[in-house]
Amino acid sequence: MSKASSLVEDEEVSYNPRTLIQKAHAATSSVGSATVIIAMLEKNGTLKIASVGDCGLRVIRKGQVVFSTSPQEHYFDCPYQLSSEAVGQTYLDATVSSVELVKGDTLVIGSDGLFDNVFDHEIVSAVGTTSDDVTNTAKVLANLAHTHSLDLSYESPYSLEARARGFDVPWWKKILGMKLTGGKLDDITVIVGHAESS
């Protein structure tokens, strides 16, 4: 992201988030892999988004999620990632989308640590109660995700998805009435923005 930040005004990027991912990834020498999402707002109010993996973005308008990105996975809990290795996903694998923002929209961008632990209705509620202070909203959402990630009995988005995909507790625990529950311990990154004019 540091490389992306330094390249955002590069002429070759030209407000294209996929190109920004390409250039930032090529300029990165760190070893490892990561998911990524980049959103770029044009002067006309169009938000252009490119993402690789399971980071996400929600646009909230008048108390409703009006736009949502979808995660990219090879299979459950194995997201697409950019890597320092020659094999793997590239900027060409990025899902690209756009949405027209209007005054009053709130953007919530986060890592899977947010979306695996916090439901959209909880995000909308947090935005509704803290909407005048985006920094506070981001902190509230990050803290909520962290709290849920540690709760072994919480019916998280992650545990519901796991069960829907056939993952659950061993049969002997099912006989005892138990099921797979709990949040997912993971990195948690949250960015919140507010559209001031269209």
Task: Describe the 3D structure.
This protein is about 30% helix and about 25% strand. The radius of gyration is 18 Å and the shape is globular. It has helices at about 1-5, 15-25, 110-115, 120-130, 135-150, 155-165, 170-175, and strands spanning about 35, 35-40, 45-50, 55-60, 65-70, 75, 80, 80-85, 95-100, 105-110, 190-195. It has seven helices and eleven strands. The chain is an alpha+beta fold. The strands form four sheets. The chain has a four-stranded antiparallel beta sheet. Helix 4 (about 120-130) runs antiparallel to helix 5 (about 135-150).
Concise account of the structure shown:
With 198 residues, this protein is an alpha+beta fold. It has helices at 2-7, 17-27, 112-115, 120-130, 134-150, 157-164, 171-175; strands spanning 33-34, 36-41, 46-52, 56-61, 64-68, 73-75, 78-79, 82-83, 95-100, 106-110, 190-194.
Summing up helix and strand content along with how strands pair, one would put the structural category as alpha+beta
Relative helix content: 25-40%
Spatial order of the strands forming the largest sheet: 5-4-10-11
Number of strands: 11
SS element count, helices: 7
One letter per element, helices H and strands E, the order comes to: HHEEEEEEEEEEHHHHHE
- Biggest sheet architecture: 4 strands, antiparallel
Any idea what the radius of gyration is? 18 Å
- Weakly predicted, low-confidence segments: none
**Percent range for β-strand residues:** 15-25%
Straight-line N-to-C gap: 27 Å
Instruction: Name the average pLDDT.
Output: 93
